[in-house]
Amino acid sequence: MTETKSPSTPGPAEVWITGIGLATSLGEGLDANWDALNARRVNVDEKTFAPYIVHPWAPVNLDTQIPKKGDQRQMEAWQRIGTYAAGLALDSAGLKGNKEILGRMDMIVAAGGGERDLAVDSNILNLQARGNSAPGFLNERLMNDLRPTLFLAQLSNLLAGNIAIVHGVTGSSRTFMGEETAGVDAARIALARIAAGQSEIALIGGSQNGERKDLLVLYEFGGFNLKGKFAPVWERQNNAGFALGSAGAFLVIESKAHAQARGARPYARLTNVVADLAHRKHPGEVTNSLEKLWSKLGGKLGEQGAIITGATGAEPATSEERAFLDAHRNFPVRATGSSFGHNMETQFPLGIGLAALSISRGALFPPNDPSGLEVEMSKPPSQIVVLGAGHWRGEGMALVEAIG
Amino acid sequence: MAAPRDKLGRPVVVVTGMGVVTSLGAGKADNWKKLTAGESGIRTITRFPTDGLKTTMAGTVDFVPIEPFSSTDLSERLADIATEEAVAQAAIGSKADFPGPLFLAVAPVEVEWPQRLELGRATGETDFNYDSILRVSGGGRFTRYHHRFQFGSVADHLAEKFGTKGSPISLSTACASGGTAIQLGVEAIRRGEADAALCVATDGSVNPEALVRFSLLSALSTHNDPPQAAVRPFAKNRDGFVMAEGAGALVLESFEAATSRGARILGVLAGCGELADSFHRTRSSPDGKPIIGCVRNALADAGIGPEEIDYINAHGTGTPENDKMEYLGISTVFGERTGQVPVSSNKSMVGHTLSAAGAVEAVFSLLTLEHQRIPPTINYDVPDPAIPFDVVPNKARDARVSAVMSNSFGFGGQNASLILTREPV
């Protein structure tokens, strides 16, 4: 969208979160996720990919958000999860089918890539191992074995493309990549644009399917996968790593003026999002980076403040984050990784969604942490800092506040 | 140059440094010389065997050796080369201390076949399934592949090497990515968040699987012989695009910041437009509305009318579909003037540099403004009567050019347009 704000408009616009769409390993919709969190339920699969642990996606009736079977077939699981969650967010904002607004709604999706055809890959590798090394062998197999449409299910920007096709969000479409930070920056840029009058309303979020061996391979290269027995994030010092999660998390954010003009009910205010990149050459850089972001975030947290973190359980990032948290003991902490697994690009939007949900429901969901780092919160939260320190790179924070 | 603010009261965004690398060569001088001489960088692929492939040519950058090859490694090197040139020209900041954020357009990253085949060999077995692959992946033997194949890895490298500030953004809007990277930089400066931004777009995607993927979608030209004649934008005998590699880098600054440090201003990023298409995953809406809206958004953002555009740097891929839809979009917005505005396609010479194209072509658009010379559309021997553009056929042309529109369209309904001018508008 082009900018419409005149230079005389005073100050940045206030931005509200008016839609939340969650489709996770704990279920679909706000109530199902809220209830599961309150019941301290965790959905992990320790067997299918043993010794690796993943959080499988809770089955849904895809037809309710992706009515055309043809559309469903054109997507791989990660895109279906994301397109489904995006639809839930639009429903939650009361915008489903509102062509006028959807046609000018901006979109920033934080995405990785799509799954591979493991049968095709395995076959090629086996044939190679048996001596097939003629020039053109790989070409021939790929030309014959790859499904033509698989490429479209793999392309990062095709989650946004599918959301445009299925839900009609077409104001703009941008896809950010780069693991955890992509989710932070999607929120950061969308917020900055709305605050500056460059945009009025945006859909942001991401999705991941953790039930993927090719994704496990990528993280196994770096020794990041949680193996053996599941443990909450704060209890992984002797068995570091993350369990890949499966989740779609999308948010509708808009200027207060835009929300009020259409009579939308806000969950919370998205006050600020900040991000940085520590090069992590020396111990303590993540802790320092988080400290700096904390002071940049503004809005001093009061006694109704809390922290929702996407701590991965990977080391040394999680220990460095714990050092930061130890310096801010006054605030109750919740690690989404314990309940939802690690969803990379999606973890930060998921955290913002849970922060807004907690504020709107007047309670922080209970701890799920035998280590004792997470403590009960008796007061209703009015300020929640969402924290994300990437397993390898990138640090980010958001401040979500009650409207008032 | 006068006002530091544009018609809409926002900071004027100028370009103070540019770098480019394509199959024609490294650097602006070499590229511009060949581009205006109508030379093609498309060649028969020698990087890997092409047996069994329908398309055997591409605009590969073979003068940057990468061993063992991975597209991500090549993308990173190409981005380095273009960025070094841009930052040196801008003479901004100090070594490894660029005073602003990085916006990087980069192809989606994934583990590639040389590495996958290495994993297969590492199993030591001749009959195995994917679980064996998974088992040998761990233990620290392939840690470097985790780093290499993170989506954020190229941006991480550039951010460290050039010392950009804050969280670098890696983005993909498919073949419009380069335009989007520039738009993000323009927006950051207009918001007053930064005085300078580094916008880079890179692509080194010519590998067997990428070629096969586009081939299976019937998107690629099969005019293999001679390869130089393969890309035929707007011609009746066009039959697809040709994959190519390259990178473009731009240093953007607010007019105020640039002038206060005495920087030479190379041009103005006057406007950006975008609009998504919900019609189909690979095809444009047949009514052309998203392209029309995108072009109009860019003009409105620049605060100018179509009558002020002197040259259109077309997306012009040479696919039957794109060129037809681009004509529909442009002719709807430009009306009777359509046939009088020169419209040429750099891709006729450098091929389609995919994620990099928007930035590569922005650099060429700025060089067009600087040299007052329009690069041609080559291989234009059989005009398509359905596309009566003035395509600047086969030979470069001197012309008065003060405002250029550069278009990029991509799979997934991505559309982005830029307006570049010599002076603030």
Set down the secondary structure blueprint.
The complex is a heterodimer of chains A (404) and B (425).
Chain A: E1 15-24, E2 27-28, H1 30-38, H2 69-73, H3 77-92, H4 99-102, E3 106-110, H5 118-129, H6 137-145, H7 150-154, H8 158-167, E4 172-177, H9 179-195, E5 201-208, H10 213-221, E6 247-255, H11 256-261, E7 268-276, H12 285-297, E8 305-309, H13 317-326, E9 333-335, H14 336-340, H15 347-361, E10 383-389, E11 395-401
Parallel strand pairs in A: 3-4, 3-5, 8-9, 8-10
Antiparallel strand pairs in A: 1-2, 1-6, 1-7, 5-6, 7-11, 10-11
Chain B: E1 13-22, E2 25-26, H1 28-36, E3 43-44, E4 57-58, H2 71-90, E5 102-106, H3 113-122, H4 130-137, H5 143-148, H6 153-162, E6 169-172, H7 177-190, E7 196-203, H8 208-216, E8 246-254, H9 255-260, E9 267-274, H10 289-302, E10 311-313, H11 320-334, E11 343-344, H12 347-350, H13 357-371, E12 373-374, E13 397-398, E14 403-410, E15 414-421
Parallel strand pairs in B: 5-6, 5-7, 10-11, 10-14
Antiparallel strand pairs in B: 1-2, 1-8, 1-9, 3-4, 7-8, 9-15, 12-13, 14-15
Helix pairs in contact in B: 2-6, 7-13, 10-11
Concise structural overview:
The complex is a heterodimer of chains A (404) and B (425). With 404 residues, chain A is of the alpha/beta class.
Structural commentary:
The complex is a heterodimer of chains A (404) and B (425). Chain A is of the alpha/beta class. Chain A has a single domain, classed as Thiolase/Chalcone synthase (Peroxisomal Thiolase, Chain A, domain 1), CATH 3.40.47. Chain A is 36% helix and 18% strand. In chain A, helix 13 links the parallel strand 8 and strand 9 (333-335). In chain A, helix 3 crosses helix 8 and helix 12 crosses helix 13 (317-326). The longest helix of chain A is centred in the middle third of the chain and has 17 residues, at 179-195. Mean pLDDT of chain A is 96; it is low at 1-9. With 425 residues, chain B is an alpha/beta fold. In chain B, strands 1, 2, 5, 6, 7, 8, 9, 10, 11, 14 and 15 form an eleven-stranded mixed sheet that branches. In chain B, strands 3-4 form a two-stranded antiparallel sheet. Chain B is globular. The relative contact order of chain B is 0.19. Classes of the chains: A alpha/beta (404), B alpha/beta (425). Chains A and B meet through helix 5, helix 6, helix 7, helix 8 and strand 4 of A and helix 3, helix 4, helix 5, helix 6 and strand 6 of B. Strand 4 (172-177) of chain A pairs antiparallel with strand 6 (169-172) of chain B, so a sheet runs across the interface.
